[in-house]
Amino acid sequence: RKEVEQDPGPFNVPEGATVAFNCTYSNSASQSFFWYRQDCRKEPKLLMSVYSSGNEDGRFTAQLNRASQYISLLIRDSKLSDSATYLCVVNMGNAGNMLTFGGGTRLMVKP
Amino acid sequence: EAGVAQSPRYKIIEKRQSVAFWCNPISGHATLYWYQQILGQGPKLLIQFQNNGVVDDSQLPKDRFSAERLKGVDSTLKIQPAKLEDSAVYLCASSFVQGGHEQFFGPGTRLTVL
Asked: What would the mean pLDDT of A31-37 be, rounded to a whole number?
């Protein structure tokens, strides 16, 4: 089983749609969680952290369910500019607090 | 503020040849990471430095890959000899503190091994 698992997609949605991505992680001792965004042929960039109580940043909402070892990202009112790959990232709590990246979920927002 | 710099941006070599990549992190960032990203996959950590010391290199194929950060600033990653399966984007990232959640990535070096 992969340490961080995501549905690779692609998710093809029309502008204005709401889309949700899920991610599961294998290590129950994992300490912190993030979503990174990676545009085509570009480097990953931090989108948002994921807090236990859930958190929102504009049209983006992240949720964490520690019991189920599950993280989600909800995007409301999708824009063309949201088209990218969304990487689920987990700090497994090992020495060095290294981050483990999921394989990414590709989103394509169409006019 | 200048970002993470990497060079070269692209490299094409034949298998069994050697190649080296260079990274200059954001000024003041103590932690430096090298990742390998194969097409269609997420980045995989190869090695993590804290200043000039190695924190973790458990996923670095040490028979052919080596990395150093001698003065705790710039870093180089070398592959010798390269294999076809080494074709990937090599990303360098840095963070202010170890385990700092925001890692800032460079543009990467796209390596093609023929």
From this structure: 93
- Say if the Cβ atoms of B44 and A98 lie within 8 Å: no
A76 vs chain B: nearest CA distance in angstroms? 24
CB-closest option in A49, A91, A101 to B43: A101
The encoded tokens of residue A33 equal 């969680």
Q: Which two tokens stand for residue B45?
A: 């950590």
The residue among A31 and A20 whose pLDDT is bigger is A20
A74 or A94, higher pLDDT = A74
Preferred mutation among B101, B104, B110 to probe A, highest tally of A CBs within 10 A? B101
Q: Is the pLDDT of residue B99 over 70?
A: no
A9, A107 contact by CB (below 8 A): yes
Residues paired with A12 in a beta bridge:
A108
